[in-house]
Queue: 2 jobs
Job 1
Amino acid sequence: MQMAVRFKHWLTAVAGAASLVATGAAVAQAAFPAKPVTVVVPFSAGGPTDVVARLIGVPMGKALGQTVIIDNALGAGGTIAAAKVARAAPDGYTIFLHHMGMSTAPALYRKLSFDPLKDFEYIGQVVDVPMTLLGRKDLPANNFKELQAYVKANGNKVTLANAGLGAVSHLCGLLFMSQMGVELTTVPYKGTGPAMNDLLGGQVDLLCDQTTQTVPFIKDGRIKVYGVTTHNRLGSLPNVPTLDEQGLKAFEVKVWHGMYAPKGTPKEVIDKLNAALKTAMADPHVKQRLAELSSDIPSADKMTPEGLRTHLTAEIAKWGPVIKKAGIYAD
Ligand code: ASP
């Protein structure tokens, strides 16, 4: 009898504690966000991914009623940042903005310290961004035809910047080299922000980068542009031909972006983050700026947790064989 009574008291105490914890968690979720939210960006400040994060971070912060802090966590084509977020507390205060590199990493990195499909919750797709093939201003090639001749004649004396293995600039550069049948000297940076500085300064010859960074520099005439990586010409750069129309057939690279949280982040918190993302993407200034940068806002169904998960799964399946066939590995 004595034991049973003690057990009953113990059970009541445990149940009470559990309900306190549950209530505590529920209170935390209901109060979310009670402090600033950090968006981890896997590339250098000033680069195209950072531009997107800072552009949408302001209206997201307004919608959440909290400051959004940008944390540029660099290296290894974005995989260091992804691993950092995968290990972060699943409370909604650390989220991740990454581009399609999230889908190429599993094939590029044989020892990947995170699983894109197991270690994250999905907030939604963010923006689709075309790329541009650029040259330093005094490169002795004034159009794509002359560029082809120049890289064939100079081979690995030509330097091609990128943001590290797994970056889209790396992927675009590989596609360019393989279609040209040339081997250039690739120069990795922690993001194409610093790569652009060296292109502007003439320290590097070529760069393939997203329009979210490159359009203003192209319009200023401070760099040369040889083409865009979409099938159709861009509204922001109507006089720049596509690489496809210049003979680089099927050369389409459009950089999609997604927003993620650590696995285990409560659904109520994900829903609040998704609502804030949607508010930001509907913000008139964001829409205008993205239009000026020829970047497309995804349809509503893609700007959902399920939409991002589905797209990421399909992209991993798509890029895996392409990367394996090309024999490209980062580690
Ligand atoms: N453009 C970089 C890349 O190649 C990303 C960045 O620096 O924002 O992935």
Job 2
Amino acid sequence: MKQRVLVTGGVGFLGSHLCEALLAMGHEVLCVDNFFTGSRDNVLHLLENPYFELIRHDVTVPLQVEVDQIYNLACPASPIHYQRDPVQTIRTCVHGAINMLDLARHTQARILQASTSEVYGDPQVHPQQEGYWGHANPIGLRSCYDEGKRCAESLFFNYQRQYGVPIRVARIFNTYGPRMHPSDGRVVSNFIVQALKHEDIAIYGAGTQTRSFCYVDDMIRGLTGLMNQEADAGPVNLGRPTENTMLELASLVIRLSGSRSRLVHLPLPEDDPGQRCPDITRAKALLDWSPEVTLEEGLEKTIAYFRALIR
Ligand code: NAD
Ligand code: UDP
């Protein structure tokens, strides 16, 4: 059935792919963004579509529109961007969540929160299951994002308990793919851009820290699947259940891009988590979801995107 779907953060990396997927599913899409990290370029190809509407708006300000579903993605996701204006990051996470939850409450819309593996902080349990409460520093440099997202989750579950708002909460692990901004600052885009320019690849710390990397198409399938299933399942991890060290990622990027780059080491940022890997048992059972794109395939597509962009 055709739905009117609001996507906040809709011109960002994930948001633009989500808008595209929702239009392809036959929905009307209202894309809201304040362009803090996202770019109009990401949705240029959608602007002619009569079922797509783009509104410049900051989610920290209340919004009144008639919608059936809300995907709340608005928030800078890269550490360099969310630490640029940490107070605004907290406002976006917390006031943004309140405003979107109020909208969901008044329109009786279903609302999905783009939460994050960062709610687990620097985890002491591996792999991370949804029942793990995490190990986050409440006052460190990353706390504007970690604690902002943790507070947003609390708001979601409290709006559900107190007002019966139908919520979905996705804990997204590191996701990459075309349309990441070349100066986004996250590891996959940094490594690929450096490799394609044959510049030194900057590994922060020893490079033995791990992340799990999910290709964007798999993530979008997970997000829409979670939104449209009927169970009230609590938070759901979405990510690739395989870990790679940053050293492994760098050598894979160098090999796949045919680069002459060498590795250099820079200091590890404060509170940088040592290990991250999702347990996706719940997503498998609930959504029949698991990532299909291998890291090598996903990197090849992303390298091709950046190669064309840089040229
Ligand atoms: P992104 O930075 O590309 O996109 C975020 C979008 O939100 C941008 O278009 C930005 O302009 C917009 N935005 C920021 N503050 C806003 C505000 N106050 N009002 C309106 N719009 C605002 O990042 P992304 O990777 O696409 O991430 C999207 C969401 O997914 C974020 O909420 C992020 O926390 C979450 N997430 C992403 C990842 C990942 O690996 N990509 C991992 C975990 C969680
Ligand atoms: N990282 C790195 N070089 C870079 C960017 C990041 O070695 O140019 C490391 C970073 O220290 C972290 C990992 O890569 O350990 C993932 O960083 P990213 O910012 O992509 O995501 P997050 O730390 O939020 O998971």
